[in-house]
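fold-stage: in
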Amino acid sequence: MTTTSHQNKRRLRRGAAAVALAAVLGAAAAPAALASPTAAVRAPAARGALISVTPVDTLDRAGVTAELGALGVDTAGVRYGVRAYRITYATVDPKGGPTTATGLLVLPRGGPARPDLVSDTHGTVAHRDSAPSGGKGYNRLTPYLHASAGRAVAAPDYLGLGGGTGPHPYMDTRSAVTATVDMLKASRTAADRLGRPVTRDVYATGFSQGGQVAMAVGRELSAGRDGLRLRALAPMAGPYDLSGSEIPGIADGRVAPRTAVFYLSYFLTAQNRLHPLYKDPAEVFRPPYARMVEGLFDGTHPEEEIVAALPATPEELLTPAWSENVRAPRGALRTALRANDGACDWKPDVPVRLYAGGADTDVPIANSRACAADLARRGVRAKVVDQGPDADHFTTALRSAPQVVRWFDALS
């Protein structure tokens, strides 16, 4: 997840179409496309098959430093320039059927001959082009930061965002994991074809929604089925505990009201396609929102436009019955929440650090503490790196990302 607060958006977006930290890092996109030999394949037989590679950006070291430094990011770890590509690849939809997705592959311009691979999963966005390969939002910040430190970065757009087909199944953990793992496999193929092969070692990180995805991806990679080797987990401000922390935070005000409205609208409309919650939006949403809310999340509306169209509080958004259902989830809502909980309900055999902020009113720090407690019950000690009582959602990302880079450096 990632914040939808008007004040934070206006302060950090500076006109970019993203829901969190604003930066158009892809402004120098290259116009030419580099198609892979499989570009004409209509229905790749294998998950993770590479379909196409398109250059989108090139920055030298000074360019990366300037872009990140303008946001107040610690650039001490920037050692190289970067080259970024949109890749299209084969994956599966939430029902397991074949589909395609896109993502951003970023390669360092220097460093090891065979760099390791970072899986960097992004936070909540609603507009297609706010995803990493779209180039309109903050979601190139951490891929560029990690690549400039000498690692290759695979940043999936997820299903239905970027150049993917269909609507985005927001907060569907299972399809986010399949899209991410398949992105990693396709990225290795693309890197080979670009003359910059990577190792099979994966360092997993992600912010907000992507923090939760990173933990779940780690669980999948730990099974050793995909030819990839997990080396470390460093998620940032993830909603790992929907049932016990995030939804209660929405109900009791720990999540800022406008943020809560955005998250609830997105989650309920997306999950209704997977775990039917209602037959008619009017069962859940008050007028006039019932007739417009599903259309707002079709991938074509900028996040700030969605926020402006929705009310200021959950009480104004939801019918009385559904306000109560959010306070005490039952039935289909409870099933949907449980289906997407459990990202920390396993035993990693790699180092884990959880980054969070004490003033986060998008994803309260209780989520990270609950994740650490889940891991501790399985004998895993995961440090919660608290960025301080002044660290809101944005600040947590700004402070944490360079620390994650340094930690990965130390581990490798």
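fold-stage: in (second)
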Amino acid sequence: MTRPGFDAAGCIVVKVGSSLLQSGPSVIDAIADDIASLTGQKKRVVLISSGAVALGRPRLGLGAGSLTLEQKQAAAAAGQPVLVGEWERAFARHGRATAQALLTLDVTESRRHWLNARATLHTLLDLGAIPVVNENDTIATDEIRYGDNDRLAARVAQLVGAELLVLLSDIEGLFDRDPRTHSDARLVPDIKRIDTAIHAMAGDTNALTGVGTGGMRSKVLAAEIATASGCATVIGPGAAPQPILRLRQAGCGSWFHPTGSAVSARAAWIAGANSPNGEIRIDAGAATALRAGKSLLPVGAIAVDGHFERGDAVRITGPDGAVIARGVSGYASSDARRICGRRTSEIEALLGYRRAAALIHADDIVLNNAGAIGGLDV
């Protein structure tokens, strides 16, 4: 029996833990083989890869045992080129280009940075590349210390609108008790809802391996973030044969069902922004387009009021001044005024650059009648 959610996923985020990188090139090659197979099925795949610190330790002569934050950051700097080189080698066997993207959790919390990162990752995917994302450990502080890339993977899944998050680990999945100390522990293959009982099963961080910074607890927390955004999550062993493709089979790994939807999560995210500082008034044609799920193009804008930066939330009003929606602006107010009412083809000549075709992308618009912002002071 197969999992329909696996087959239905058009965009997949795969996270590989540090401990797997210690297993040698064969594990990396097997993961790359599966990802190449998925991209051959026209699925878009983003790879989140830990391992820079672990790979950098021996290069700098840092032995076993705990490291200071500064030593971890130095090890990450030394290990990152090795890590990227390994993935580049593995995917070159399939004729696939890779591209490094270094992020931190604060980037995914800032709307402006969110827009930049999303645009870059989607462009890489459009070009057929495999983005290899890692925490920017050389500048990270708190993020480096605990479960960083599990949470980062969940945020990237939100960012790219993934339908499936795959967390590859060194164990089969979530067990009802710690399998390292309980021989009768049983795998939990299907999780409809993450509650206190599931969190209790996850236990503490992976203190025994001495390699990764997370563990099952951080993976369940990542699953909680992703599933609330409509993204199914599956945890499975990265060292197994066909480590990703095998998770298509029910009973392999632990599958967490989505509890929310991408639309509702995005709506809550936009609606939860601070009170908008600006307003974009649009014509009747643009209002009709927005209600049909289209982006707001500059040609449909009548006026721009207030001061806002790219990534800020703004009100979108119709010709009569009534609030139609709230959205995250793709341009600062000063530039939005310059391209207001103009065609997309004119943007570059007017601004000297062209960042996006839309003033506000459809993914960043929440209609006032969608329920998410109805009743709020928009």
